[in-house]
Design goal:
Nuclear Transport Factor 2, Chain: A; 5 helices; disordered N terminus
Length: 213
């Protein structure tokens, strides 16, 4: 009787041990699958969190995409800056949309006490494709400034034209009505520029830009 109970106890203990071993094996065999299931989402996130933007992924070079459409307010600000006219000096400001040489532009007109100004600004990229203004010479000494040499004058003219260089500017010194002046021209990016500058102040008092392309 005692030997039968003892044998039954050993059988029961063996069954428990076998059950425990099978359970442990099942857990171990499931770990790789679980680890693989966790790693897939992590890899997906890493791929999606790269530094390239959607435009770069589509093949656009963002670093060179520096030209953008401009609205009327931005176009007017560009005209003021190019003319070196403070906004508070301008009155009778008019802006309308038009075309120049097949290019959609804002035609901008405004007046100041010292001259009248006309500009044509490309809507697509803000490029000034046309300009015409003249400052009354009686205002030159009042507006201030400092004397400039011929070489300095070339650099001042080129600075008004994005991408241009002083070496592209042709210039000469003239005298009219008892006052010296620099006169010259510049051709850049299919636009012909002509100017007159006051050597005593460095002010460009006559400026014309004409699209020739």
């Amino acid at each position: 009787m005692f030997s039968i109970q003892k044998k039954s106890a050993r059988i029961l203990l063996a069954c428990v041990a076998l059950s425990f071993m099978l359970s442990a094996c099942g857990t171990a065999s499931g770990s790789p699958d679980q680890a693989g299931g966790d790693s897939a989402p992590q890899q997906s996130i890493a791929q999606g969190s790269g530094t390239s933007s959607p435009d770069q992924q589509l093949g656009f070079d963002i670093d060179h995409a520096d030209t953008q459409p401009v609205d009327q307010e931005a176009a007017l600000a560009l005209a003021f800056e190019n003319a070196s006219v403070p906004q508070e000096d301008a009155y009778h400001v008019q802006i309308k949309q038009d075309t120049e040489g097949g290019i959609p532009v804002y035609k901008i007109e405004f007046e100041t006490q010292y001259g009248d100004y006309d500009f044509e600004v490309s809507i697509a990229d803000g490029r000034i494709v046309g300009a015409d203004y003249e400052v009354d010479e009686e205002w030159l000494d009042t507006l201030g400034g400092s004397p400039v040499t011929l070489e300095e004058a070339k650099d001042l003219v080129a600075a008004k034209v994005p991408g241009a260089d002083g070496s592209q500017v042709s210039i000469r010194q003239e005298a009219e009505d008892g006052r010296d002046r620099y006169e010259g021209r510049l051709y850049h990016d299919e636009i012909q520029y002509e100017f007159e500058m006051d050597p005593k102040t460095g002010i460009i008092f006559d400026w014309n830009a004409d699209l020739r392309g």
